[in-house]
């Protein structure tokens, strides 16, 4: 890999940053809106309880469930940010990855299963166009988890 290849790769990665920031910002705003809705509902229920009004326990349970769900979803999204790698186009050096047994190139994602035999996959090969919202497991590891 020559100096010009390295330079091209650095420029390509720098150009990718604004898109990554935009996607992350859009996701965060969507989650923040949902969080604010839940918080407002909790505030309303709290005010009712302080006034001595009767509150629906099922509604409280639903809000608790939603809050836990969004919290788990946020944690998973931040973990996923760490396992998605953008690699330069058509690089023919290093190890071969994925089910296609090709070199690392373009967007790649890691399987969350520590014992995965392949570990890294090309987005195209596994049918992904955008980073998944939750933890991602390859087809083989998903089958093993079901067994």
Automatic annotation (TrEMBL):
Domain PHD-type: 95-144
Gene Ontology, cellular component aspect: nucleus
Keywords attached to this entry: Metal-binding, Nucleus, Zinc, Zinc-finger
Binding site for Zn(2+) 1: 98, 100, 122, 125
List of residues binding Zn(2+) 2: 111, 116, 138, 141
Full protein name: Phd zinc finger-containing protein
InterPro entries on file: ING_fam, Zinc_finger_PHD-type_CS, Znf_FYVE_PHD, Znf_PHD, Znf_PHD-finger, Znf_RING/FYVE/PHD
GO MF terms held by the record: zinc ion binding
UniProt entry tagged with the keyword Zinc-finger: yes
Cell compartments where the protein resides: Nucleus
Domain of life: Eukaryota
Protein species of origin: Vairimorpha apis BRL 01
Family (UniProt): Belongs to the ING family.
PROSITE patterns according to UniProt: ZF_PHD_1, ZF_PHD_2
